[in-house]
Design a protein that fits this description.
- Helix content is about 50%, strand content about 5%.
- With about 500 residues, the protein is mostly helical.
- The strands form three sheets. It has a two-stranded antiparallel ribbon. The protein has a two-stranded antiparallel sheet with strand order 2-3. A two-stranded antiparallel sheet has the order 4-6.
- The longest helix is centred in the first third of the chain and has 27 residues.
- The radius of gyration is 26 Å and the shape is globular.
- InterPro entries: SusD-like_2, TPR-like_helical_dom_sf.
- This is SusD/RagB family nutrient-binding outer membrane lipoprotein.
- It comes from Spirosoma terrae.
- Pfam families: SusD-like_2.
Length: about 500
């Protein structure tokens, strides 16, 4: 008996020792990488974040600033929002890989990738703080590296200081190392993309500075960028646009191309958009909206927008029903939303455009925050740039001519005339048009300027107030309650009507 026990024990020890000696080798799957290079991370981050930007524009951004309105399931249009976690989840989910790029680039002294990652970090955190106000920033994305599972919420003022610093650093880093950038599906990668990333960095600085311009004097910072174009290049034409071009084949088509027709057609052109563009005979109207199927006179090409904020029944019955209301324009349509089927890669996924930069400069010049250039020239450049953008992407088979009439720029509604406030209203309104489908940017900008007028619909559920922020995700109450509560105590009630720091 004793010898049998010894034999069994020896065999057990031998087996255990053998497994232990080769444990790591046996459990290492050679087909699953344990490290990913920066280029592979970059392409995924760009695709995910820009697609999220498009989806947020569709679901909330276009609605709240009244580019579009709804005829069914109208809660969003009536401000019955509840949680809107899309921005939060997109920013913090994708920041993990942005931080991985930063770590890899820092270790490998790859300044080009590091500069790009800092641009993306700045852009993403600007989306988060503009949507919610105070958010985790300094301690964010540190759970794996330093064990911070409950990050503190930084003030928006602190976050914007960090954003501006990172964009400045990105401009300094880009082009100072030799690695060839790959995985750049936004600008194409290679050496030629670096100057475009620098231009995006400095253009985003212009946007950020204007965002906080009601809280501090940003004139000297804006002027410094414009004074030294060699050091601080900004977007100079539509060729510099940070807009993702989609592919004709799945899975990298326009994100809404695969939408169900019913879900897509819940959204229609807003009366605010249609009426404003019709009043100035704007050639972009057919880009943004389609003629109604049942016009008031047979055979007439007629565009009718629906008022925002109607209840379910009045929305569905407006102007005789869905066939009497303009659908969203064909360039943005889904596969089954028209016949013949729309081209799957007409629309773009925007981060920022040259047109927006020109409107920023027009406002800055009109307010005498800068001394470079002419406000009128910047303003007209912005309009022309947006029209030229659509001229370039709308296919000939759509038969849409985005060429303004000879009198377009001289008519009273467009000509750069009037008081300073009237000029600012023209700048802001044209900027509002150009920001269609650019995520939540039109909403952020409207909250800062109040231009153009956005009036809550008659059946709104927010006491006749347009929301000015998102509420924090409910999960933060249980997972990070103390820090979330400190932010609420500092910022104000966690509801849709509490203005963020730059909006107070």
């Amino acid at each position: 008996m004793k010898s049998i026990k010894i034999l069994v024990t020896s065999l057990s020890l031998l087996a255990f020792t053998s497994c232990d000696n080769s444990f790591e080798e046996i459990n290492n799957n050679p087909n699953v990488p344990t490290q990913v290079s920066a280029d592979l991370l970059l392409s995924g981050v760009l695709r995910n974040t820009i697609n999220d930007q498009v989806n947020m524009a569709w679901g909330i951004g276009n609605i709240v600033v009244q580019h579009t309105a709804k005829i069914q399931f109208v809660n969003e249009d009536r401000y019955l929002w509840g949680e809107q976690n899309g921005v939060w989840n997109s920013v913090y989910g994708n920041m993990r890989n942005v931080q991985n790029i930063i770590d890899l680039a820092t270790a490998g002294k790859q300044n080009n990738y590091l500069g790009i990652a800092l641009v993306l970090k700045s852009w993403l955190f600007s989306l988060a703080t503009d949507a919610y106000g105070d958010v985790p920033y300094t301690d964010a994305i540190k759970a794996k590296s330093t064990g911070v599972y409950a990050p503190k919420y930084d003030t928006q003022e602190t976050i914007y200081a960090g954003i501006l610093a990172d964009l400045t650093k990105a401009n300094e880093l880009l082009g100072t190392s030799n690695e060839v950038v790959a995985g750049d599906i936004l600008f194409g990668g290679g050496t030629g993309s670096l100057v475009k990333w620098k231009k995006l960095a400095n253009s985003l600085r212009l946007r950020a500075l204007m965002r906080i311009s009601n809280k501090r004097n940003v004139g000297s910072d804006l002027q410094a960028i414009l004074t030294d174009n060699a050091k601080f290049p900004i977007m100079e034409s539509n060729a510099d646009n940070a807009t993702l071009t989609y592919l004709a084949a799945a899975p990298n088509q326009w994100p809404l191309y695969g939408a169900r027709v019913g879900s897509f057609d819940e959204f229609r052109a807003s009366k605010s958009l249609v009426d404003r563009l019709s009043a100035i005979n704007d050639p972009r109207l057919p880009v943004f909206a389609r003629p109604v199927e049942k016009p008031s006179v047979a055979g007439k090409i007629e565009y009718v927008g629906i008022p925002n904020g109607l209840g379910d029944t009045p929305a569905l019955n407006y102007n005789g029903g869905p066939q009497g209301v303009s659908r969203v324009g064909l360039p943005f349509a889904c596969l089954v939303c028209s016949s013949p089927a729309p081209v799957p890669n007409v629309a773009r996924g925007p981060v920022m455009t040259y047109a927006e930069v020109q409107f920023i400069l027009a406002e800055a010049r009109e307010k005498n925050l800068i001394t470079t250039g002419s406000a009128e020239t910047y303003y007209l450049n912005g309009i022309k740039a947006n029209m030229d953008f659509y001229k370039a992407i709308v296919p000939a088979e759509y038969s849409i001519d985005v060429t303004p009439a000879a009198t377009y720029y001289t008519q009273s509604g467009v000509a750069y005339t009037g008081t300073t406030q009237q000029k600012l209203e023209k700048i802001g309104t044209q900027k509002w048009v150009a920001l269609l489908f650019n995520g939540l940017e039109a909403w952020y900008d409207w909250r800062r300027t109040g231009i153009p007028t956005v009036t809550p619909g008659p059946d709104n559920l927010n006491n006749n107030k347009v929301p000015v922020r998102f509420i924090y995700p409910r999960s933060e109450q249980s997972l990070n309650g103390q820090n979330r509560n400190e932010a609420v105590a500092r910022q104000g009630a966690d509801d849709l009507n509490t203005a963020v720091w730059w909006d107070k």
